């Protein structure tokens, strides 16, 4: 099955661009824009029409990226996550991606549901959710920097790691 | 301000005590985009050194 790694790589990169692209959109565009929009009373449009759609693509792109990445690793899945010699660099990238995926589903999405009013929450709970979701999103932006470094170099440019 | 007082001639025990106990707000680097990206680059370097010198040492 030589076709499988080719398809898995294609889908992994495709979904990864969607996931990390939306992550950067949230951090570099939407959060600063919401601050200004709240000041002039136009934030409701972003919260009601833009954020839920962006979050839908964001969280499912994260899942597809991870599953396609796991398929791409194939038999190297366990050696990569065990950080065994030649798979250590890509394994580190895989660990960072996995932490980011968990951040999306365990911290960002449940708190965004409170912020957007999809689940009931009082003002104090919303304020707390806003801070947790913000920090989890910023943590993912920070983790994306080494994740992309180890993902792009882990298997194809191993000389960087002395392999 | 406190640092100036700490290094000035009229230093007393109270100033020193206050310097080490006074609560100053600590900034979170993740609150700014530049802080987040710089943290990411630093983390990349730390993980690279860790990988090369500990995980891949002797390979």
Shape descriptor of chain A reads: elongated
Strand content of chain A: under 5%
Whole-number tally of structural domains of chain A: 1
> Biggest sheet of chain B, in brief?
none
Shape of chain B: elongated
Strand % of chain B is under 5%
Structural class of chain B: mainly alpha
CA-based gyration radius of chain B: 20 Å
* Biggest interface between chains: A-B, 22 and 18 residues
Termini separation of chain B comes to: 52 Å
The major sheet of chain A is characterized as: none
> Helix segment count of chain A?
5
In DSSP terms (H or I, runs of 4 or more residues), the helix count of chain B works out at 3
How are helices and strands ordered from N to C of chain A? HHHHH
Strand tally of chain A = 0
Give a short synopsis of this structure.
The complex is a heterodimer of chains A (163) and B (59). The model of chain A has no long low-confidence stretch (mean pLDDT 95).
Secondary structure topology:
The complex is a heterodimer of chains A (163) and B (59).
Chain A: H1 3-39, H2 43-73, H3 77-81, H4 88-115, H5 123-153
Chain B: H1 2-7, H2 13-21, H3 33-55
Transmembrane segments (chain B): 33-51
Keywords (chain B): Membrane, Transmembrane, Transmembrane helix
Account of the protein in words:
With 163 residues, chain A is mainly α. Helix content of chain A is 81%, strand content 0%. Chain A has one domain. Chain A has helices at 3-39, 43-73, 77-81, 88-115, 123-153. In chain A, α1 (3-39) packs antiparallel against α2 (43-73), α2 (43-73) runs antiparallel to α4 and α4 (88-115) packs antiparallel against α5 (123-153). By secondary structure, chain B is mostly helical. Chain B has one domain (2-55). Helix content of chain B is 64%, strand content 0%. Chain B has helices spanning 2-7, 13-21, 33-55. The chains are: A mainly alpha (163), B mainly alpha (59). Chains A and B meet through α4 and α5 of A and α3 of B. Chain B: Keywords: Membrane, Transmembrane, Transmembrane helix. Chain B: The chain crosses the membrane at residues 33-51.
């Amino acid at each position: 099955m030589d076709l499988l790694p080719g398809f898995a790589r294609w889908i992994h990169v495709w979904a990864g661009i969607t996931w990390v692209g939306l992550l950067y959109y949230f951090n570099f565009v939407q959060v600063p824009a919401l601050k200004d929009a709240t000041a002039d009373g136009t934030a409701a449009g972003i919260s009601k029409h833009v954020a839920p759609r962006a979050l839908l693509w964001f969280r499912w792109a994260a899942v597809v990226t991870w599953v396609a990445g796991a398929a791409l690793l194939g038999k190297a899945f366990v050696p990569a996550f065990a950080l065994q010699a030649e798979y250590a660099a890509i394994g580190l990238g895989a660990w960072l991606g996995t932490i980011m995926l968990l951040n999306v589903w365990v911290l960002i999405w449940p708190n965004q549901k409170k912020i957007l009013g999809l689940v009931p929450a009082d003002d104090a709970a919303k304020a707390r959710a806003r801070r947790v979701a913000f920090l989890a999103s910023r943590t993912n932006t920070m983790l994306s920097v080494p994740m992309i470094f180890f993902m792009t170099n882990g298997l194809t440019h191993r000389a960087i790691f002395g392999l | 301000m406190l640092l100036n007082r700490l290094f000035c001639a009229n230093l007393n025990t109270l100033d020193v005590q206050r310097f080490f106990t006074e609560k100053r707000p600590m900034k979170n680097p993740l609150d700014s985009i530049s802080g987040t990206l710089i943290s990411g680059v630093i983390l990349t370097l730390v993980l690279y050194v860790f990988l090369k010198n500990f995980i891949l040492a002797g390979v």
